[in-house]
Amino acid sequence: MDLARHLHYFLTVAGELHFGRAAETLGIAQPPLSQSIQRLERELGVQLFDRSRRSITLTAAGELLIEEARALLAAEQRLRTLMRKAGAGDLGALRVGVLAETPAPALQALLRLLGEQAPELTVDLQELTTAEQLRLLATAELDVGLVLQPIDAPDLVCGPAAAVPLGVVLPRTSPLARLPEIALADLAGHDLILPPRATAAGWHDHVLEVCRGGGFEPGRIRHARNQEFALGLVLAGSGVAFQQEALARREPRVAWRPLTGNPLVRRVAAVWAGTAVHPAVPRFARAATAVIAGDEAPAPLIAPGASQPWSVVYARNAVDPR
Fold this sequence. Notes:
Elements: H1 3-16, H2 19-26, H3 30-44, E1 49-50, E2 57-58, H4 60-87, E3 93-98, H5 104-117, E4 122-127, H6 130-138, E5 144-148, E6 156-165, E7 167-171, E8 192-194, H7 201-213, E9 221-223, H8 227-235, E10 240-243, H9 245-248, E11 254-258, E12 265-273, H10 281-292
Parallel strand pairs: 3-4, 3-5, 8-9, 8-10
Antiparallel strand pairs: 1-2, 5-12, 6-12, 7-10, 7-11
C-alpha cells in the first residue's frame, strides 16, 4: 500500500469536502479517488468521512488523522530530501588524509571551496604521510587521501594529479644562492634532505632517480619528516632540500631557487578505494586538484568566531597556519 499517496488524497478530500472537486484538484478521475479513500479506511480500520448526508463531513477519526497525515507526509519529504543530499555527497562526514607539507592557504582554500559547494558536509582532516594514508584506505578508516605520486596501489582509484614544480632550498650564505636558477649538477657534493623512504617510497625513489639523471649524486641522505626540521637542517648547513616556493619563502634565512628545466615536479592526487565510495569523494578530488594546482585562489583569513561548516583535525606537528 502506498500510504503516502493515500494520505495525500485524503488531505485533499478533507480540504474540499467534495470528492468531485478533490478529484479535479488532483487531476484524476473520481472513482479511483473514492477507491483510494475506501482502501485507506480499511487499512486503518476506521471511517474517515460521513457520507450519509448530501455533503460529506469528517468523522472524529478523520479530524484526528489530518494533523497526523500532514506530519507523516512532511517527515517523508524530509527523509527523501535527506537521502537525496546524502546520495549526492552533500551530507555526512568525509574522512580525509592530507600531507603535512600541504600549505596552510591551500588547506584554507580547499575547505572554503567545499564549504561553498556542500555546507552541510563535515570534512575531518587528518595529517598523514602517503604510506599512512594508503594503510588507512586499505582498512576503510579513510574515505579519501591526498598522496604523493607515484604509488603502488592497484586497488585504489586515482583522481587527476596536481603538479607543483619544486626548487632547491639552501642557506642564503651559499655561493649557489647568487644564481637565478640552479641545475641539479650544481648541487654535486651536497647532502640531500629528504623525508624517510617509509613515508612515500615511490616519491623518495623518484627524487633520487631524477637527481642522478641530472648529475647530482647526494653525498649523504639526511631524513626529515617535518618541513620545519628540514629547513633547520638547511640552515645548519647539513644539506639542501627540494620544496615548493610557498613553503620555503616562510623562512627568510634560506634561499629558494628554481631548478633549471623544472626536473622535479611534485604530483599530488586524491586516491580512494574502488568500492563503497563516499559520494562526496569525486567532489573533493576535483576541489583538491584545483586548489593544489593553484586554480583556486586562497580566501581571506576567517574572522575569529565565524561559523565554519567543517571540523578539522590537526596533529601536533601540523603546518603552522600563520
